[in-house]
Specification:
The chain is mainly alpha-helical. It has helices at residues 9-22, 27-52, 64-67, 70-81, 100-117, 136-148, 156-172, 176-179, 207-224, 260-275, 285-294, and strands spanning 187-188, 195-198, 201-204.
Length: 301
Amino acid sequence: MAPSSTQSADAAISAFIQDLADRGSAASTRRIRRHFLNEALRHARQEEEEAAGDDGAGTARLTAAGLMTPDRAAAWLADAAAGRTRTRNTARGPEAEASPNSMRTRAVTWNAFAEYLGLPDRLDPDRPAEGSRLSASDTERLVHDLSVRRPVHANAMTALRTAALAALVADTGLGVPGLAGVKTSALHLSGDRPRADLGGESYPLDEATVHIMSRWLSARAVIIAGLEGSDPGYLWIPTKPGRSRDGSLPPKPGLMPAAVRTLHHAHRRLVSQLLGAPLRPGALRDLYEEREKSAGPNGSS
């Protein structure tokens, strides 16, 4: 069925998402497109209700063309940038300003929908923000929140693994690709100077990191106990069975290390729920750099 800007906005959005699926678009892309288009639709309906001065009866009949006007887009983006369209709280507060990259994604989503409908107007997305990073204090808070606050629908062990990985990124300044292959033998959590020995370097570990890492190792031990044979030694392991690709039983978690993309995806998804915007693990490096600057010539503060 050919797209029509005269159909209801709800139906047009659903048809657009289905079209993306039919063309092989990634599930994550479809989820983001649906989320932001529904946000724009909610905003438009709220505007109509306020303008009508009643309960908004009839706003459900808003057409796709009625939704996709430059004026509505400008009003939506202005409120989104100020945090007024957010539907859930975040670690930065319920009305924290939206991140530059989430605003860019909104504009790109609007343009993709306009192209699908054959409408002429386009928004001008800002360039991606370079190196969005958290301050040292915000990093400490995020790592703590990841370790104690399980986001909605999140697997408890996945959340704990993500917290442990984030803590290690913050303590070492290394990225996920550099930490993905770490073995448990690289960690030395007991004694007066807990550390991680990685790539010929020895990195001191913060007390909070030691606590989070110890919790992850305990959770990991539960997963490994289900394996037949010895512990393969990978620090980061899947928390759920893998997918069966040939009809055979899926591999048990722990037999292979967690893939870099798996670690990245879990981090971005969980952090997005806490902060209201996705954030790459590398954004946590400011804490490591601040500690490095404050260290004395002998490596002590």
